[in-house]
Every structure is written in C-alpha cells, then in structure tokens.
Design goal:
The complex is a heterodimer of chains A (316) and B (95).
Chain A (H helix, E strand, L loop, with lengths): L1 H12 L12 H20 L1 H8 L5 H26 L5 H10 L16 H21 L5 H29 L3 H20 L11 H6 L7 H15 L13 E3 L4 E3 L5 H11 L3 H14 L1 H25 L1
Helix pairs in contact in A: 2-4, 3-4, 4-7, 6-7, 6-8, 6-10
Chain B lengths: L7 E7 L6 E8 L3 H12 L7 E6 L11 H9 L19
The chains are: A mainly alpha (316), B alpha+beta (95).
Bound molecules: fe (ii) ion (2 copies).
The site of one fe (ii) ion has 5 residues of chain A, from helix 6 and helix 7.
C-alpha cells in the first residue's frame, strides 16, 4: 500500500496523467468525486439564473447568444458528470446528492438575476472567474477531468465576451441603462470574488490538492489574478468596482483590495443565500417531471430491440 | 431511485475526412439512435465533426493497466524495429 502510494505520487510528480483504471489512493478518488461533481452541479444549476432571462432578452441577437450559452452550460455539466462517472460513481447517485443538498455547487448561483444588466455581469464576472479557475484545471492530474476542462475552456470564452459586449452596450446607453449597469456590478462583484473559495489559510483541501496536482494555484492566487484583470476591464465600461480599498500597489505589482465578507460566504454555502431553496427545488422538480421521459425512452428502445430480434430471426 | 438507467455510450468523432475517429467522451442514451443524436448536440455543436461512432461502454474490452508493463514489455527491447538501428554512410542520400 505504502509502495503503491509512492509510485502514484512519483507518477504525479513526473506529470504522468492518472487514468480511470489506474491504481489511485481512495482519498484521491474521493477528492475528485467531490470536486468534479460540485463542478458539474454548478454548470447545471448555473443554467437557472440565466434561463430566467432568455424569454426577455432585448433583441433576437441577444436571445440567440444567451440560448447558446445556456445550452453550452448543459453540455459542460454533461462532460463533467461523465468524467466523474469514470471514478465509479453513478449519475443517479450524483443527482441524488444534489437533490438532497448533500452535494454543494458554486454559491454564486444562489444570487438572483434581477435585471438585464445581470446577464452581462454574469458573463463578464461569473464566467470570467470560472475561466480563471478552469484554465489551470486543463492540466489537472486526472486525465478525464483535464480533457473535459479543455473542451469547457474552448467554449467559455464566447460566454465572457458576449457578457462584456452586453455591458459595453449599456455603458453607451441612457442614464438609466448606465445606472442599471453599475447596480449589477455592485451586486455581483463580491460574490464573484467568493467564487475562488475560502482564503488559503482556511482552505482545508488546498495543500493536498496541490500535491496531487488537481489544483495548480491556490484560491488566493487566482482571486488576485482575477482582481487585477477586472480592475482594468471595468474602466472601459466607465463604471467602478464597489471597493473603496481597491488600489494599485506598485511594490506588489498587484491591486490591493478590501476584506471579503466571509460570514456571508459561509451563510450561502450553508443554504441561507437568497435563492438556495428555489434552485434546488427547480432541479428536483425538473428531475421528477422528466421521470416519465426516461422510462418511456427505455421502453421504446426495448420494444425496438425486440422487434429487430424477431425480424432477424424470421429472415434467417 | 429508479433502476432502469440509460446505458452509457462512448462517443468517437471524426473531425474531418481523412482522419481517424477519436474518442471524445461519453453520455447516457436509451439506444444507439438516441446516442447519435445526443452526441451531435453535445460534442459537435461547433462543427467539430463530420462523422460519429457510438459504442455502448460495456462492449469495450480494455487492457488492464496494472498489467501494462508486462503487456507492452516485448516491444521495449526491439530497437531493430526502428530505422535508426541501422548504420549507413552519410552519402547515400535520403533513405
Ligand atoms: Fe460552463
Ligand atoms: Fe460559461
């Protein structure tokens, strides 16, 4: 056992990918199942706040883009569930964990999307933060997860761009549109920063995950990178980030930023965010109402198989 | 929890004519026809392919990774299967 663990770590250190049937420590498997399934759930639950605006998109162009984006997120969920299933857990078990609240998903999706500007800000900040997290995951030590991430990252860049374009348009619009833009940034900025997870000193999984090369950067490193990028991008929108402490630090070569309200973060994680109940309820309902479709498709496939078998027997 | 889960299918995409089909991932579907339709929607939304293969996962037989060394070992000491094994003078041109 000791020997196997050493061989495993040596492979990881040599940047050799781990594949589904390879030996792996049970904790590595568990960590991956937790992380990949959380990630998959986030993609699926993440469709809800944006799906909310599809029918109210202000033009056909915007509607097409939003529809395509939300469809992409469904695809991302599927790639990730598939990757997770290679670790020996079934799709039904994973969904069950989401529906009972045992599994988590990104807290960001427990906030409501109140105005059209939110569609822009979600694309810019939420997809932006997701990309920041996901790009290093393309080099994750577990092969199926890394490959899924490559596909996901290819598709994400349009998500962020369409969001930013929405915001650019609003920034050149009427006073009311500009106010709507700033209001959306104000509401989403801090929750977006929380997407990178607890700060390094409170993150119990980070160290081991870095050693296993599941993670390549710490939560705080990625968060800093995100702040640096957004602090510049917001200027083009003639808007501001709601942080009085945001200031370029010449010495560090980074932006300093204010303290995050971790109390709010943990409250939302524990289920007390503005939309937690609504989101899980929507997923449960969709699953329950789809049951007859899943059953009917199986019955239909079975009937076809039998018909085919009879036909082959007769022609033989 | 329902027991009649849709089986798992492995999906292979030929990205353009002249290339091999390549494994891209998997999905659940009730039968092969549905697997093809779902694979189209999931794996080729951006012109990633001109042809699809779907194979039910349970029909794939895989080599055992723990026996990998023994399985591929016979190829390791056969350097004479590579062109660089043979000593030829420089002047003979491309061969
Ligand atoms: Fe996504
Ligand atoms: Fe996205």
């Amino acid at each position: 056992m000791q020997h196997l663990e050493e061989k495993f770590q040596a492979k990881i250190d040599a940047e050799i990918k781990i594949e589904p049937k390879d030996w792996m420590p049970e904790r590595y498997r568990k960590t991956l199942i937790r992380q990949i399934s959380q990630h998959a759930h986030s993609e699926i639950v993440g469709m809800l706040p944006e799906g909310n605006w599809i029918t109210r998109a202000p033009s056909l162009r915007r509607k097409l883009a939003l529809l395509a984006k939300v469809q992409d997120e469904a695809g991302h969920g599927l790639y990730l569930y598939s990757a997770c299933e290679t670790l020996g857990v079934s799709r039904d078990e994973l969904l069950e964990q989401l529906h009972t609240g045992e599994a988590k998903y990104s807290s960001i999706f427990n906030y409501p999307t109140l105005t059209w500007a939110d569609m822009g800000v979600v694309g810019w900040l939420v997809d932006g933060a997701a990309i920041m997290n996901q790009v290093p995951l393309c080099r994750c030590s577990y092969g199926p997860y890394a490959r899924a991430m490559v596909r996901v990252c290819k598709e994400e860049s349009f998500h962020q761009r369409q969001g930013y374009e929405i915001l650019l348009t609003l920034s050149k619009g009427t006073e009311a549109q500009k106010r709507m833009l700033q209001d959306a940034i104000d509401r989403w900025w801090w929750p977006a920063l929380m997407m990178f997870g607890p700060s390094d000193k409170d993150s119990k999984h980070t160290l081991q995950s870095m050693k296993w090369k599941i993670k390549r950067f710490t939560n705080d490193e990625l968060r800093q990178k995100f702040v640096d990028v957004c602090a510049e991008q917001v200027k083009l929108l003639n808007a501001t980030l709601p942080d009085p402490d945001l200031k370029w630090n010449e010495e560090r070569g980074h932006y300093d930023f204010g303290a995050i309200n971790w109390e709010e973060f943990w409250q939302v994680v524990k289920g007390n965010g503005p939309c937690n109940k609504e989101r899980v309820e929507a997923r449960r309902k969709a699953y329950a109402e789809g049951a007859w479709v899943r059953e009917a498709a199986m019955a239909h496939a079975e009937k076809r198989r039998q018909r085919q078998a009879t036909a082959t027997a007769q022609s033989a | 929890m329902e027991k009649n889960n849709w089986p798992l299918w492995e999906i292979f995409v030929r990205s353009r004519s002249g290339l091999h089909h390549k494994h891209v991932g998997s999905l659940h579907a009730a039968d092969a026809a549905m697997a093809i339709e779902n694979a189209r929607d999931v794996y080729t939304r951006r012109n990633e392919g001109v042809s699809l293969w779907v194979v039910e996962s349970q029909h794939i037989t895989a080599s055992n990774p723990s026996e990998g060394e023994a399985l591929f070992d016979p190829a390791n000491d056969k350097v004479y299967r590579h062109p660089t094994f043979y000593d030829l003078p420089d002047g003979i041109g491309h061969m």
